[in-house]
Write a sequence for this structure.
């Protein structure tokens, strides 16, 4: 009876590989919460690996598969290659990778929550609210979800007002909060009055800087930054990874799993706007404009790609 | 110990075909007892080829150190068990996972070796410099630069046959890291720039540089992902078996350990390096060129770091991207120092830390021990091992005295 | 009848590694006496004094001060009981000033603040009282070795020492300074201080001490009244055999000049001129002694010859080959041997073993190496040298740092002399060695001379130079004051030249 | 007029930013300076800061007072110091490895404790943090006025520079520390307890480094996050060497690094065309360049990194 940890007791077993720590209040926390949701909603047994070193992606996929996990997920495009490799070896297990567009029959799927679209909304709102005509977005590192968000941000801002000045920078770190704060302060000094952070923990530094000076945050990055920082965050563009995960895992149970990449966003209700909070009150007119934009994006009347270069 | 003594003595005296294992334990025992006591018996053993081999591998000092190190690791794990218990885990399950994950079966053993491979390289990187009196904290940066150049060469020239392309690519990795280290040596010799500072700074520079490359000039078309084009098949380090990641890089690492031994033992410049490290003035007096030696050593040390990077890219990852090293460069320092900068020690140190890494994965996966606890255990191992090394030097006699008294012998 | 101010009873000390440095040693010190410890290198003199100063703790034995047992667990305790130690290897910190060195560890008047000014005044008082000429604000690295010795003595007095221990103080002093030191010692004893004095120089010992305790191989041989023993008796008690005081040497048969310095000038490390138009020629088969007070350009002279320091003008020729400012390797390869100034600083790799130390100059030559190092040969050769040069060690695996000072010097001799170099540059080759060891070194160097080597022999010991050299050049402030024949020069004349008088002005 | 005003404002904010970046590094570097002067190299400053950061946030939370946070951080740092001192002074272990062990231990330990204590979703609202203290009058001065509107701890950091300088130069304890760093055996023979000095400087220094960590978690920010130190400990160590083991030199070195970082951030903020990675390299390159260009051979305490073996 020494093998009870890995014995198959018929329970659904789901594991996820995370590039960072579950406390980053961003990318990894989102996934962790999604996992927790599955534990509750699907009565699944869950496991996760934090700070997964690149050298171990492959081995960990394999390890979880060997340990009897039914669905193994990699949270980030960087897990794609390793997943492809291991998925071949374990045809009876399901593999899911996020923020990439890969797939492999019969058991590897991926999904992206449309970052360009989310960035577009953020940029649009920021451009609408700025009094100085200068807005900024602060990313962690130049990786696809963030680069795409910045691309969308620029497009959205220009869509609202071609003359608005947009500053897009990277801190080079997802956890150096102090750097985020310093970066934000420097931006504020150049006249930026609406900031959109998208850098996990480092975002918290941006929030602190904004709070000190009293500028407004329109949060990117998918989690609801305003939940704890309602005083300064006007709204967050939320990305519901939990829902997508649950959906996909459920599909493995009922046999509807499709080995294909998924793109989801506002239209699917996976991307949504949080409630308005923060230090400024929107006029009805502004609210209407935002609602219109969202509706147009959903209906396809506005396509962010038309405004990017 | 008493047990060993009785058993081994019996076996050895009345059974000339004692197994290697028995002899090893016996040798260990002889060494613990102290040199000289059983010299006659040692002579006896030397007569036999196997005995000689063991004596070569474990000269008395080494055997004693090894024993202490093993005890240290066990003590660390013991304290680690308390930590696991404190955070509400099950030490039994955790260590079972550690054991299974690191050497529970052939595959696990191979995985441990996979992880040991880059650590051996970075351990060598630190050890080369240390032997010449330099402290190289820069293996991490050298690793990235080696990875970069290896990728550059490995993702082009796909028309070459493997037999040519792979060695050239490895060489590129060596040179990439080597040049990065060479700059450190040059700054030291030319400006007296302290290598601890420059290597720490250069780590950051290298990491940002790689980040720039893979999001800019080296990005894989069409530019969706921040990673380089894949290494062509002709530059991939072949794997030994289907289903295991153990690849030829491990052999290259062992070869480099041999070359390390060869460099310092057989080459004139190796001797010069040790003289420079041990007494810089004497090196000048003897007509050596310490500045050149230092630059050369930093080039080689950097090269070893570079090979660690090349090894990861060509053996495991197949492409260059940000953060592809989980701190192998820093672990290498511990590997070298735990291995006391000796060839054999570096291999063992690499395997020890490799085992902690692969077993650690299993601890996370199965025993659900968080990664943070694994870090704690890792640091405990380092602390106990370095503390244990001092016992070797300082208290050996005292311990021996107690040991003898308890044994009632002599 | 004077009382025993100090008594050491049955002191035993074993070092890790098993060396028994002191075995049941008993020592009594009377108030107001000068008591000498005499013994070979490694006899255990420094060890027992280090025990007295609280630096080492003995394995067994008692120490009584004023007939009361005390326990000396640290130098602090020893200082408390009025024991002032001047260590064989100075314990001054070069990077600090004289005052800072002296007041180190002493409670200050305005604690926690340093009282630099007040302390400097007191130091100046001592300096004047004993005629030391110390500038309290100078940095220690700026001082000559002799002055450093004075600072050590001030340090001890400043801490209220009543028992002063001087471990081989004269090894680094010039004759005038030795006289000065002896005057100080007499002043101390006149004030009822007691002095323990360690030296290898039997003349001095006879001159200054009241009683002598002889140690051999860690054990006490005897304690005698100075007036009751002769010099040869002392030497024999110390070494255990008869010792020749005068090196036996045939008349030199000088050949052609082998090492020629022509109008050499050079700067020291601080950029000041250290050598002024030095011209010298050392012939084959002769020993040219260089006399002078430490720090008068000897180090720079040797460094220029060995290619370790650039000369600013002039030329150096070795066997007619111009090697001015050549790389050291090129010079060494011209069959030049070099016994460096300080064996521990530049002579040896203390953490490397004996064979690795022995090949320092030869490792790149056949048969030590062709393409690869030939350890088999190296080992055999090393073992032969160890035997030939009587280096006391179990085997060549031992680390050089573990040898006693005398054996370390022999190791260097073996390395530098075994190839019979045409030219030998030796500096302080016998510093700190006992009479037996000195005899040995001299014998070897003279043998090299007789084999035709040209030898430049730098020393601060006038006796030694008179004994061994065929000619003596005196250097002062980087200038050669003159070259004299040891057979018709007096110690006084040499002393004057060393103090800066030109030879011609003496005559 | 308008233009020159903005320029002044930029310079002013630049100075402020420089100090903001430099302050935590400065505090840590001063802490390191104490032990470095006594001949101890501590690469574990990174981990010690991290532990200080966590302890600081816990202390501030429990006592609802940032100063208590700093105090708890100091105590925690001191505890790490005791361990480090035991390893390198008593056991005489290699200082570099001991430091590395502390860094790994800190990484694991703080994560574990943080999650036990704050759970997975730390929130800044519960942790009180330091606020800026404007010095009357001085803070009104144009351009450099921002220098006088800093966190209380920042003033403390600045004050520690002359304090440390004079302590080292003018007091008996300073002299003892220097002598131990230069030549422990001589210090010993002069009646100084080398072990006590090394233990003392390591523990005091580690306490200061702990406070440097708290500066991050209850000063600059108001919460703890795993790995928030992000290399500042290494930079502090480099600053000590770069500052030639002199308190004012260390101040200069940290300001230079802060300058590089502030410059880098501003260049990004105004939308420089240079890839951001090169801008991020700037402070590190600046440090190396300054070292090579101006500093030359440094004069480390002679016994730096060497354990003291007593006979
Ligand atoms: N780098 C070294 N440092 C110190 N001692 C060394 C070194 N290399 C070799 N030795 C010693 O020199 C001796 C000769 O070594 P070597 O290995 O050449 O022996 P050997 O009898 O020629 O054996 P082999 O058959 O391996 O050539 C050995 O005692 C060895 O310990
Ligand atoms: N720290 C030490 N560790 C091991 N052995 C030592 C140590 N110090 C001295 N010894 C050994 O103890 C013996 C006595 O040494 P000690 O220094 O007392 O001799 P000494 O009489 O002062 O000689 P010298 O005239 O050369 O100064 C020597 O064999 C020496 O090698
Ligand atoms: Mg002595
Ligand atoms: Mg051989």
């Amino acid at each position: 009876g020494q093998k009870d940890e890995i014995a198959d007791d018929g329970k659904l077993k789901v594991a996820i590989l995370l590039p960072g720590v579950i406390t980053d209040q961003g990318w990894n926390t989102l996934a962790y919460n999604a996992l927790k949701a599955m534990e509750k909603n699907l009565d699944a047994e869950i496991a996760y690996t934090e700070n997964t070193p690149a050298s171990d992606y492959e081995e960990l996929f394999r390890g979880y598969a060997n340990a009897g996990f039914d669905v193994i997920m990699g949270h980030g495009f960087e897990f794609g290659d390793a997943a492809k490799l291991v998925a071949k070896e374990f045809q009876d297990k399901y593999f899911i990778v996020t923020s990439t567009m890969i797939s492999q029959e019969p058991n590897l799927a991926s999904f992206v929550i449309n970052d360009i679209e989310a960035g577009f909304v953020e940029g649009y709102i920021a451009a609408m609210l700025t009094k100085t005509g200068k807005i900024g977005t602060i990313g962690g590192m130049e990786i696809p979800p963030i680069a795409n968000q910045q691309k969308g941000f620029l497009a959205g801002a220009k869509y609202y007002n071609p003359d608005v000045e947009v500053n897009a920078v990277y801190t080079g770190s997802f956890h150096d909060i102090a750097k985020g704060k310093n970066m934000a302060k420097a931006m504020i000094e150049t006249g930026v009055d609406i900031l959109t952070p998208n850098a996990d923990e480092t975002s918290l530094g941006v929030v602190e800087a904004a709070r000190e000076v009293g500028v407004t945050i329109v949060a990117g990055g998918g989690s609801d930054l305003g939940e704890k920082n309602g005083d300064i965050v006007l709204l967050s563009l939320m990305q519901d990874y939990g829902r997508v995960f649950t959906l996909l895992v459920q599909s493995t149970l009922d046999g509807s799993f499709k080995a294909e990449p998924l793109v989801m966003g506002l239209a699917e209700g996976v991307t949504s706007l949080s409630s308005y909070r923060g230090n400024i009150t929107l006029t009805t007119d502004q609210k209407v404009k935002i609602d219109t934009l969202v509706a147009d994006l959903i209906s396809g009347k506005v396509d962010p790609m038309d405004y990017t270069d | 110990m008493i047990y060993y003594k009785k058993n081994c003595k019996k076996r050895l005296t009345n059974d000339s075909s004692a197994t290697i294992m028995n002899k090893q334990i016996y040798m260990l025992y002889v060494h613990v007892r102290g040199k000289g006591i059983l010299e006659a018996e040692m002579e006896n053993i030397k007569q036999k080829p196997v005995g000689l081999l063991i004596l070569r591998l474990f000269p008395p000092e080494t055997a004693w150190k090894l024993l202490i190190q093993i005890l240290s690791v066990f003590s660390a794990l013991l304290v680690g068990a308390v930590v696991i218990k404190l955070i509400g885990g099950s030490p039994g399950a955790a260590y079972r996972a550690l054991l299974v994950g690191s050497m529970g079966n052939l595959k696990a053993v191979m995985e441990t070796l996979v992880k040991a491979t880059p650590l051996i390289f970075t351990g060598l990187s630190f050890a080369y410099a240390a032997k010449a009196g330099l402290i190289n904290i820069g293996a991490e940066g050298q690793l990235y630069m080696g990875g970069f150049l290896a990728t550059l060469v490995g993702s082009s020239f796909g028309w070459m046959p493997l037999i040519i392309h792979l060695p050239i690519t490895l060489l590129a990795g060596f040179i990439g890291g080597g040049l990065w280290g060479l700059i450190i040596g040059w700054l030291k010799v030319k400006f007296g720039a302290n290598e601890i500072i420059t290597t720490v700074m250069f780590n950051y520079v290298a990491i940002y540089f790689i980040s720039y490359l893979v999001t800019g000039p080296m990005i894989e078309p069409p530019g969706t992902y921040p990673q380089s084009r894949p290494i062509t098949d002709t530059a991939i380090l072949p794997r030994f078996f289907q289903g295991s990641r153990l690849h030829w890089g491990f052999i290259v690492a062992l070869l480099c350990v041999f070359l390390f031994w060869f460099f310092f033992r057989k080459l004139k410049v190796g001797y010069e390096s040790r003289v420079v490290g041990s007494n810089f003035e004497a090196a000048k007096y003897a007509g050596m060129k310490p500045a050149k030696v230092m630059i050369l050593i930093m080039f080689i040390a950097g090269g070893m770091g570079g090979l660690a990077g090349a090894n990861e890219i060509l053996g495991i990852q197949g492409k260059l991207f940000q953060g592809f090293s989980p701190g192998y460069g820093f672990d290498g320092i511990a590997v070298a120092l735990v291995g006391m900068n000796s060839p054999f020690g570096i291999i063992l140190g690499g395997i020890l830390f490799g085992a902690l890494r692969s077993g650690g994965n299993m601890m996370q996966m199965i025993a659900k021990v968080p990664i943070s606890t694994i870090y704690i255990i890792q640091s405990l191992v380092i602390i106990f091992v370095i503390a244990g090394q001092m016992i070797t030097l300082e208290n050996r006699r005292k311990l021996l005295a107690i040991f003898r008294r308890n044994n009632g012998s002599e | 009848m004077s009382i025993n101010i100090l008594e050491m009873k049955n002191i035993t000390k074993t070092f890790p590694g098993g060396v028994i440095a002191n075995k049941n040693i008993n020592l009594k010190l009377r108030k107001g006496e000068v008591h000498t410890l005499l013994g070979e290198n490694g006899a255990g003199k420094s060890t027992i004094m280090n025990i007295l100063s609280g630096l080492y703790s003995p394995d067994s034995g008692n120490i009584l001060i004023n007939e009361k047992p005390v326990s000396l667990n640290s130098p602090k305790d020893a200082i408390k009981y009025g024991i002032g130690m001047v260590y064989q290897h100075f314990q001054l910190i070069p990077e600090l000033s004289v005052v800072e060195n002296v007041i180190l560890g002493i409670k200050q008047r305005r604690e926690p603040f340093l009282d630099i000014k007040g302390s400097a005044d007191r130091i100046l008082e001592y300096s004047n009282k004993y005629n030391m000429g110390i500038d309290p604000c100078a940095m220690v690295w700026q001082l000559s070795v002799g002055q450093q010795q004075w600072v050590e003595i001030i340090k001890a007095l400043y801490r209220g020492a009543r028992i002063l221990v001087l471990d081989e103080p004269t090894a680094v002093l010039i004759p005038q300074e030795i006289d000065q030191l002896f005057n100080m010692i007499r002043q101390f004893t006149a004030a009822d201080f007691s002095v323990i004095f360690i030296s290898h120089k039997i003349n001095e010992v006879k001159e200054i001490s009241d009683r002598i305790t002889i140690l051999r191989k860690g054990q006490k041989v005897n304690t005698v009244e100075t007036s009751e023993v002769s010099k040869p008796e002392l030497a024999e008690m110390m070494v255990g055999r008869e010792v020749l005081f005068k090196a036996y040497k045939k008349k030199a048969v000088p050949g052609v000049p082998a090492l020629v310095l022509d109008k050499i000038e050079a700067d020291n490390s601080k950029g000041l001129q250290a050598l002024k138009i030095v011209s010298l020629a050392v012939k084959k088969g002769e020993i040219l002694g260089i006399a002078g007070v430490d720090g008068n350009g000897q180090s720079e002279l040797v460094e220029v010859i060995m290619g370790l320091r650039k000369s600013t003008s002039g030329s150096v020729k070795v066997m007619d080959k111009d090697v001015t400012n050549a790389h050291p390797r090129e010079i060494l390869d011209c069959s030049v041997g070099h016994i460096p100034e300080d064996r521990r600083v530049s002579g040896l790799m203390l953490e490397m073993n004996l064979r690795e130390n022995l090949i320092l100059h030869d490792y790149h030559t056949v048969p030590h190496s062709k393409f690869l190092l030939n350890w088999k040969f190296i080992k055999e050769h090393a073992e032969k040298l160890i035997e030939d040069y009587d280096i006391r060690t179990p085997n060549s695996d031992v680390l050089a740092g573990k040898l006693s000072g005398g054996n370390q010097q022999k190791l260097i001799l073996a390395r530098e002399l075994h190839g019979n170099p045409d030219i030998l540059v030796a500096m302080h080759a016998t510093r700190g060695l006992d009479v037996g060891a000195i005899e040995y070194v001299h014998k070897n160097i003279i043998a090299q001379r007789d084999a035709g080597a040209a030898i430049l022999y730098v020393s601060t010991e006038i006796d030694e130079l008179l004994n061994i050299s065929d000619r003596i050049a005196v250097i002062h402030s980087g200038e050669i004051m003159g070259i004299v024949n040891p057979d018709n020069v007096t110690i006084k004349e040499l002393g004057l030249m060393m103090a800066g008088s030109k030879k011609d002005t003496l005559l | 007029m308008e233009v020159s005003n903005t320029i002044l404002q930029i310079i002013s904010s630049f100075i402020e930013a420089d100090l903001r970046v430099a302050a935590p590094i400065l505090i840590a570097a001063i802490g390191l300076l104490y032990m470095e002067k006594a001949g101890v190299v501590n690469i574990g400053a990174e981990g010690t800061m991290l532990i200080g950061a966590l302890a600081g946030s816990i202390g501030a939370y429990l006592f609802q007072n940032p100063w208590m946070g700093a105090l708890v951080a100091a105590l925690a740092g001191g505890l790490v110091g005791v361990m480090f001192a035991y390893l390198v002074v008593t056991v005489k272990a290699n200082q570099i490895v001991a430091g590395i062990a502390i860094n790994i231990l800190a990484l694991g330990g703080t994560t574990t404790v943080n999650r036990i204590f704050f759970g997975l979703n730390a929130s800044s609202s519960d942790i009180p943090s330091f606020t800026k203290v404007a010095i009357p009058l001085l803070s009104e001065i144009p351009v450099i006025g921002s220098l006088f509107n800093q966190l209380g701890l920042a003033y403390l950091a600045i004050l520690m520079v002359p304090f440390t300088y004079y302590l080292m130069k003018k007091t008996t304890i300073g002299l003892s520390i220097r002598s131990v760093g230069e030549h422990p055996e001589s210090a010993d023979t002069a009646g100084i307890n080398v072990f006590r000095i090394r233990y003392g400087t390591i523990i005091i220094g580690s306490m200061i480094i702990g406070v440097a960590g708290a500066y991050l978690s209850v000063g600059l920010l108001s919460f703890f996050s795993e790995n928030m130190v992000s290399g500042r400990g290494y930079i502090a160590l480099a600053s000590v060497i770069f500052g030639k083991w002199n308190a004012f030199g260390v101040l200069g070195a940290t300001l230079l690094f802060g300058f590089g970082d502030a410059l880098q951030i501003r260049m990004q903020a105004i939308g420089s065309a240079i890839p951001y990675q090169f801008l991020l390299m700037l402070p590190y390159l600046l440090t190396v360049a300054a070292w090579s260009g101006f500093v030359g051979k440094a004069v480390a305490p002679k016994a730096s990194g060497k354990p003291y073996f007593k006979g």
